[in-house]
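Q: what sequence does this backbone want?
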């Protein structure tokens, strides 16, 4: 008789389980029009946009706090989603304070 762990390992490698994982990904993409990774990236970028506008925190710290692994991956994702670089975005959204 096989142990429960061996049965679980065998079930995890079964072709049926793999097909179900692909089906879930396909169903998600058909329902939302994007992959789960794309949705997560867009959510992270939206959070960084908020932080870039509302805080003076360094861009690197904002990127890491929002779940990006590195500054280069963040910069690429940010530009892919928004069409602009994080520094340019921050600069364009800041309102200059002038003395009356």
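A:
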């Amino acid at each position: 008789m096989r142990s429960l762990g061996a049965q679980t390992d065998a079930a995890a490698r079964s072709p049926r389980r793999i097909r179900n994982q692909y089906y879930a990904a396909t169903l998600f993409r058909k329902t939302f029009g994007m992959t789960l990774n794309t949705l997560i990236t867009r959510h992270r970028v939206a959070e960084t946009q908020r932080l870039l506008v509302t805080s003076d925190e360094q861009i690197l710290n904002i990127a890491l706090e929002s779940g990006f692994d590195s500054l280069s991956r963040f910069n690429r994702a940010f530009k892919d989603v928004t069409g602009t670089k994080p520094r340019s975005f921050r600069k364009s959204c800041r309102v200059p304070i002038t003395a009356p």
